[in-house]
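Sample intake sheet
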Amino acid sequence: MQQKAISKYRVLKIPSALVFAIGALTICFSQTQSDTTKQPQVPPTQKTDFPVGRKPDAILFDGANIWVANQLGDSLMKLSASDGSNLGTFPTGSKPVALAYDGENIWVANKFSNNVMKFRASDGSLVETIKVGRGPEALLFDTGSIWVANGEDGSVTKLRLSDGANCTFRVGTRPIAFASDGNHVWVANNNSGSVTKLRADDGTNLGTFDAGREPTGLAFDGVNLWVANFYSKSVTRLNADGSVRDRITVEDGPAAIGFFGGFIMVLNYGGRSISQIDPQTGKVVKTLTVGRSPVGLAFDGVHIWVANGGNDSVSRVKTSFAKPAP
């Protein structure tokens, strides 16, 4: 269970802050009379927008519902994944910017309150509030623990759910994103241009590796780690040992990234788009135009959900995940 002027990328990384304005996306193929090669058509993308609170930042799917952290509204919203209806709005701390789900509870990182809050997913009731480091900006649920990236401390804190024990580990400057490969927790160090690999069970630092300019998002595809580099207009694919496999150009301001439906999906803040990458070929197979200030994405198994930081809304988008013809 995992995943900002942006907010999560905020200070840094992005100026502060998706409405998919996609009516029908078709791929047109140029073809001469002598060219008989047929290319597969991609079905139109279908998009629906739903209003949320002020400056939505993080977004998460818990298996049944969509949760949204409204960073300037200091609130958490629960939406029905089936129709986008508002199932409840719950007050948080100051500037909620990250979410995680542990199977029963929704965790919220409040950047300006220097704490995390645990809400019961079934009814949104607050279970507890836990003090962490300064400027928490990312959360990850992994193997019975919640990991917290303390952006202003250059550290991450591991909160063990069974007994509340916690440990804090040093990483790079301004950690703001996590990914898990099952045995390791990877951390994006935004101001260091690097990622740090920690052993999940005890936090041992196994190395720090160059990524790109202002890394803001991480995703694991089962084999490789993908890094969204905000100021490089690229994503970097790393091997398991931290070495660079390749770099793939996307549009301006890649801010968030996920592995959905067998594809790497990159949310481009400045490009107002999503780049869909086939990890088998490393090629961008589709670019979806979206609205202003896209900052967070989630996947419910059918639709991509996007937090539109500049429009106070979230978009639900259905798009094709069919593999392109070889």
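Comment: Residues 56 and 70 are 4 Å apart (CA to CA). The domain at 98-253+264-293 is CATH 2.130.10.10 (Methylamine Dehydrogenase; Chain H).
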